[in-house]
Prior knowledge:
7-stranded antiparallel sheet, 2 helices, 9 strands, globular, DUF6911
Amino acid sequence: MDNKKLEKYYEIYYRTIVNNTKKDTIQTIKNYIEFKEILSLFRHGDGSCRVWIIDQSRNTGIETITLNSDSHKYLITAYGYTEAGDEVLSLHNPNPENLQISILGEQWDLSMITLDFNIINKIFKKFFELGDVPRNILY
């Protein structure tokens, strides 16, 4: 019996927007270290990034994380599966006035937005390291 650990791969699709010019890229990576350079594009830049875990042995858990970045405002969502069905997770900051904000031309509830890129980094890092997201941040 082969006890060799199966490597996980991640497919990344991202779109950067610089001077109203969009550039789309798709690539496959193995770990967070490879992803950090891609993620850094969104700290000060606009665009979107979607990361899929490629792991055929998983039936449950987080499968995809999506990041939208617009003028230092960040919207992040995670999608996956539980035994009960589909699971969608996002930020939930207090927003008593139910204000809306535009991210890449779409309106979103302000409670789903963060200005803190360190939170974004923490979410992706946990996803790459453990295959999950911090449930105290996204729920």
